[in-house]
């Protein structure tokens, strides 16, 4: 009987401790290299923001940037909409997150590639119509992928369904810019 209770308590501890998804804040430092003629890297970084604060809870997320143009994005899971706020408008623009103008052509998962803030991170490389996207993640920042099954926009579900986690670092390469 004592062994059964110990086993039950151990199982509950493991489920409670290791089964939790990440809710909280991740801060990204962004550096852009602009590929648009007559726009410098510094101008593009200033417009998009050199810092991004990302908050996630219960399938909703928001991203706040210090950009002079790009200010924030808010994803409302119950609506499956992504709202974007730009400084040149009082109105939030929204995208149907069920749609995605991009397409992932190939996935590549590389284990234990880099250490970020003390976390040993895997690398997920998405080869897309738009370019290459690299995400570095650790399973300790786990997300509930079921909450994002309809969030196709920006290849979001492709990312979380393969990583099951939030990225600690990302590198985006497309025709307009490189982001690291």
TrEMBL record:
Keywords: Signal. This is Uncharacterized protein. It comes from the Eukaryota. Residues 1-24 form the signal peptide. It comes from Hamiltosporidium magnivora.
